[in-house]
Design a protein that fits this description.
about 425 residues; alpha/beta; 6-stranded mixed β-sheet; 4-stranded mixed β-sheet
Length: about 425
């Protein structure tokens, strides 16, 4: 009996070792709603082609990756990388991992499978450094979107979607007077307040000047940024009192439950609303945040290849898979995002995502601060902290001074 037990344990251990040797650890922060559902759909499709590879889902909860990024950085700097990980295109990728020499270039992967020219040129540039691509864009999100409850919109007499701040604030006020929260906010994880502010800042600066900030061609010492703080203060009069206890999903759910008129969020909220059973254009509507109708605030999730990935060959298979039309058309309709590839099948996407696709191809592309595209992590973190203090204290002059200090500390123009 003892001998049988020892043999059984040995078999289990050998199988465990085999599974580990043919594993693929994928690190992300997709743990809820449409994002988790989309990730699992990718895993299922990948295993259809590679049934012997054991996927380790190393997802860490926390909106916008606030928790995951800290865990990932510790692992990467400690020489314990996952096989591949989710990272936002832009400075989050380049400044944090590429420039320090922690990533392998993957230009050859895209060229080998004929996918290099299947992504927009501007997007390829965002995921490149010194002529080499370092991650595969899986999707494109639009950050500057307001999602609203169509039933409540009818009750407050909204006959057309607002395009100016006075129109928007009027509807928020009407909703509040009728007993609804005007605009739901869930900033428990802090990033959502900056998510709202950066889009207001985009509205006041305009896409051209906003983009110039990150190139050192425009100064942060601009009255438009101070005005953006004033507008944020006006909007905060219509948010829910328990905002600091809620996540972005909680805030989005308030719209679904008929407690709030609207929520300003990236279009991952669209994926979440669909998982709750709502139909776009029927149960909920959307519009670009007033003043940003001509801009597409870009957020792109990508996956790269860390140096010394434990299962490098499997990671390469994963990246080749992610770059295919089939993978992107499987993931994005569920996630609530549009494909990064330009040759995806548009018929697979709902009315909202078609709207987003059209604007992506026609509007000015602007990088997000909090979602890693525009600025280094040090800048985004400091600005996020400043805006979170502002949400509580609402001191426009003091916060504007702090923004100038943060910009100066990070080498941006302030005069």
């Amino acid at each position: 009996m003892k001998k049988i037990l020892i043999i059984t344990i040995a078999i289990i251990l050998s199988l465990s070792i085999f599974a580990t040797e043919n594993a693929l650890e994928i690190f992300s922060w997709w743990t809820g709603g449409g994002e988790e559902e989309g990730l699992l759909a990718l895993f299922n499709l990948f295993n259809k082609y590679y049934p012997d590879i054991h996927i380790i889902n190393a997802a860490v909860a926390g909106g916008a990756g606030t928790n995951a990024k800290a865990v990932l950085k510790t692992r990467m700097l400690g020489g314990n990388p996952p096989d591949s990980f989710q990272v936002h295109a832009g400075m989050e990728l380049t400044d944090t991992y590429v420039i320090p020499g922690l990533m392998e270039p993957i230009t050859w992967i895209l060229k080998e499978i004929g996918a290099y020219n299947k992504f927009p040129k501007d997007l390829i540039e965002i995921v490149s450094y010194k002529g080499e691509v370092y991650s595969v864009p899986v999707n494109v999100h639009r950050a500057n979107v307001v999602f609203y409850n169509k039933k409540i919109a009818k009750e407050i007499g909204m006959t057309k979607e607002p395009t100016t701040w006075p129109e928007f604030l009027t509807y928020l006020d009407k909703a509040k007077k009728m007993g609804y929260v005007g605009i739901a906010l869930g900033d428990k994880n802090k990033w959502t307040s900056l998510h709202l502010f950066e889009s207001i800042m985009l509205a006041e600066l305009g896409p051209e000047k906003y983009n110039k900030l990150w190139k050192g061609e425009a100064s942060f010492n601009d009255p438009a940024i101070k005005q953006a703080l004033s507008i944020l203060k006006d909007i905060l009069a219509y948010v829910n009192s328990d905002h600091s206890a809620l996540t972005w999903q909680d805030a989005t759910r308030m719209v679904f439950e008929g407690k709030a008129f609207c929520n300003m969020m990236g279009d991952w909220a669209e994926g979440y609303l669909k998982t709750l059973g709502w139909k776009p254009g029927v149960d909920f509507g959307w519009f670009a945040l007033p003043g940003t109708q001509d801009a597409f605030m870009l957020v792109s999730d990508t996956f790269g290849l860390p140096k010394n990935a434990p299962h490098r060959e499997n990671a390469i298979k994963w990246l080749k898979f992610l770059a295919t039309v089939e993978a992107q058309d499987t993931f994005n309709p569920i996630k609530g995002s549009i494909p990064a590839r330009i040759d995806a099948d548009k018929s697979k996407y709902d009315v909202y995502l078609k709207w987003s696709m059209n604007d992506f191809s026609t509007k000015a592309i602007c990088p997000s601060i909090i979602h890693g595209s525009a600025a280094p992590e040090s800048f985004a973190t400091a600005l996020m902290d400043a805006i979170n203090i502002f949400v509580t204290e609402q001191n426009v002059n003091q916060t504007f001074k702090e923004i100038l200090w943060i910009a100066e500390d990070n080498g941006y123009l302030t005069d």
